[in-house]
Amino acid sequence: MKWTSTLTAALVIVLLVGLGGQQNTRAENNGLERTPVLGWSSWSFLRKHPTTANVEAQARALKKSGLQKLGYEYVNLDDMWYQCPGPQGPNVGPYGQWVIDSSRFPAHGDTNGIKALADYVHSLGMRFGIYVTPGISKQAVSKNTPIKGTPYTAAEIAEPSVAENNYNCGGMVRINLHKPGAQAFINSWADMLASWGVDYVKLDGVKNSNAPDVKAWSNAIRQSGRPMVLDATQGSYTQAIAPTLMKYANQWEFPPDVECYRCEKGGSSYPLTSWANVEKRFNYAAEWQPYAGPGGFNDYDSIEVGNGNSDGLTPAERQTQSSLWALASAPLILGVDLTHLNPLDLKYLKNTAVLAVDQDSIAAKRVLNNGNRQVFAKMEPSGDVIVGLFNTGGSAEKVSVQASAVGLPANERGYSAKNLWTGKMEKESGAISANVPSHGVVLYRIRGL
């Protein structure tokens, strides 16, 4: 069906701007992440126990599941890949960078364990990511390790009295990036990661005061000569750091972890999350919407869809999480055990109509926030309007919004609305409405008749 001829080109432009079609004009211009990344990360399921064997198994499962063909191509190794002997900080090599835990990631001949893992991921046609945190290890400071390629040392660039976030090991202190040798130290990190074949760097534990570190890492990655996505993740920062993130990072995660640590049973990672942790993202998605666009996206943390009841979400809640992330054009990074995918969840993850909403790179605006009823909407360059009708309440409710509120022009013939989860076509008129189950969503692609 064709979009109504009464919608002029000028009106399309106005509506695109109003619903988030032109955003983040100062985004990182390193050529990466023009659309949100798709992939998998080790933290939610593997937590503190990643190894070569279990990460490779997840990579194979990503490929075998068919998800790789749909664009899920990043395999990201989160924390605990390095030696952590205690509160004195990560063990360091001769130039102050962390040392690989070879008991988890053994070398293959002359190839260190992380490069060997990256090579394996690349052999499957995928990309490899790794985890770091700002600052420098106390061990590098106490040993006063030299900074590679310079006459400077770790003690000369460190501020030992200022602790940096490293959640599972500790022992990191601030780098004074005004000191000679400081940028060179970050450069040496990026050069090392580039030599390992890293494609994605998660810089975790970022606070507002770490804005200089984000810039330093961006510059370091650029000078390394290897394209690497830079993901700056939370240590409880605010929108005050947004201009820096938009200029120097490719994505940024500001909410607290989506995992439900207090819910876990029997020492497992299950359930992975909770409805309460997903529901918190509605306000974040609304508040951070203006900052997202090609080159830099809001990261709402892992998608916990894939392990059925072990996700910690009902089927309706899984559709809600996927829909909210897609409407926000957020990175879709799975946190689940890919080797035991639930058939229904896999169907959700393979829904190409929903994936297309995520990959349009437009972050939707919240146009209704009324009690349990929330509506997010965005207009795509084609003129199609994507509308998510959400019900956060405990029982089914009718959710309705005026067509004009989501950017639809007046049309006497009404609108066709495709339900992107069921595939069913419906007709709407002056209002876009649906009966929405508890904690559920109806996600429409709408155009004029």
Describe this structure in words.
The structure is a single chain. The protein has 449 residues and is an alpha/beta fold. The chain folds into 2 domains: 25-363, Alpha-Beta Barrel (TIM Barrel); 367-448, Immunoglobulin-like. The protein has helices spanning 9-18, 43-46, 52-64, 113-123, 138-143, 154-157, 182-196, 211-224, 242-248, 275-279, 281-288, 315-327, 343-349, 352-358; strands spanning 38-41, 74-76, 127-132, 136-137, 158-163, 172-175, 200-206, 229-234, 251-253, 297-299, 332-334, 365-370, 373-379, 385-391, 397-402, 415-419, 425-428, 431-436, 440-448. An 8-stranded parallel β-sheet has the order 10-9-8-7-3-2-1-11. A 6-stranded antiparallel β-sheet has the order 12-13-14-19-16-17, covered by helices on one side. Strands 4-6-5 form a 3-stranded antiparallel β-sheet. Helix 3 packs parallel to helix 4 (113-123) and helix 12 (315-327) runs parallel beside helix 13 (343-349). The longest helix has 15 residues, at 182-196. It is globular.
**What's the CATH superfamily of the largest domain, by name?**
Aldolase class I
From the spread of the alpha carbons, the general shape counts as: globular
Strands across the major sheet, in which order? 10-9-8-7-3-2-1-11
Distance between the termini: 6 Å
If you compute it from the alpha carbons, what radius of gyration comes out, rounded to the nearest whole angstrom? 23 Å
How much of the residues is beta strand, in percent?
A: 15-25%
CATH class of the largest domain: Alpha Beta
CATH architecture annotation name of the largest domain: Alpha-Beta Barrel
